[in-house]
Structures
1.
Amino acid sequence: MYESQVTFTLDTICPWTYMAKKRLDQALAKFRSSPMASSVSYTLHFAPYQLNPNFPPEADRLQWYLDNKHFGDATTQQVFQAHMTNIAEPLGIALRFDGYMGNTLHAHRVVQYFQSSKGPETANKLIDALYERYFEKGEHPSRDEVLIGACVEAGISEEEAKKVVGDKEIGLAEVKAKLREVSRDVDAVPVVTVEGKRRDITLTGAKEVEEYVKTLEKIANEST
């Protein structure tokens, strides 16, 4: 069986990456239940990207979007929220637009550290927990208590989570290097790259479930 890595490049405060992750999860589940699953094993891997590396530690989400994305126009902001809600609801996502924003460096640091030390399954659960906390509960994306709670949800002991989250130097050099590497090739997220025997296929933007399925099947066909 061919072992293929599916690299998902994201920022934990980008709603399009959350929706793309939901769709990709559905596509992977559909592929794994098909006869083609006997030819390829797909492992999901996460690559970090910061939409705004210079973002401050904390900001009010509603106010930040109003000022920086919608030019102070409350009507435009309401239209945006309604549009995003309509896209998210079929995926089982109950979007909230209030709460706090913040720099995501340490969220990426923690994800990358545990992806390396605990493996892809733990990283997958950690990403899901961070998405839900930020987008559906309005929690800050990288406060210590939020990161610790997400780690525990992912099956990491509270003691280890507190140690890694609390010591800001653990994994910091590594994640900064990875962010620099990723930013050389990526200027928007989400990006999904599926590795194949003959070629890799890269999809940019939040694609529909069937497009992800077709890509997984294409790589499988080319890898037999």
2.
Amino acid sequence: MLIGPGVRHRLAEQVARTGARRAVVVSARPAGWTPDPGVPHLVLSAEDGEAGKTLSVVERYCRRFAQFGLSRTDVVVAVGGGSTTDTAGLAAALYHRGVPVIHLPTTLLAQVDASVGGKTGANLPEGKNLVGAYWQPRAVLCDTDYLATLSAAELRSGYGEIARCHFIGAGDLRGRSHTEQIAASVRRKAELVSADERESSGRRHLLNYGHTLGHALEVGTGFTLRHGEAVAIGTVFAGRLAGHLGRITPERVAEHAEVVAHYGLSGRLPSGVDPAALLALMRRDKKATTGLTFVLDGPRGARRSPTYPSPRSPPCWPRCRAPSPRAEV
């Protein structure tokens, strides 16, 4: 894992370490921002965004791998946001039953979360990330130069994941530099993934803090809410639910809203969202078994909650009108 300005230029070094003789570079960035892997290669264009995170895109990548003659000793390089690293990573996991992959995440969201941990995935109309595989990258190069090219909205989406990290043991990252925020977020994720790579023991579930409602909001709004924006709302809701269940104090509940607001994010449900539809989507979440499952804060820190079986809305459901950049739920 390399973090800092200009680390994309070390791609050829990382490719050489895999022993690959050829590469396919799946890139959502312009040519000037897509580094040379140092071996004969094919560049496939990708389009960042959840709309392109489909199985048809994964199939297209795999077919181009085959046409190029990529072998299982070669390498796939993903250059882009989380949707690009997810789909290219899934294609790498499936093609020849697994070829090495290297990620160059180019958004703050991807650098703090999506590109690390070994999860790959694609969406279905029925829900987010319902198809995927665990496939660890050989290297991740987080070049902070890419962040200067991002819109304010794209940066806010990354801040949503950083805000969530506040409540899963990464510490208070407010006021820290991007490099420090990325390093702390990745360090905490690495600790959890190394202890529970495939979510078998429950430790890795902490990374889903705020995501049960967050994923439902993404799908329920047709992905007009960015991932980090949706996770921010889910994080505030997780605080409210934990407070309602007596797991945390009112002050800790308020801290959830304060941290999210610090990063310029809303903690309120957008207008026009049907709570019943969100509940149905949450029950399709990949963590759900017999009901709704949340990761909630508590006296010993965040833990996976017992199943919430009621078909009704949780009593602390945030019923708000329109989102406001700094409003509490």
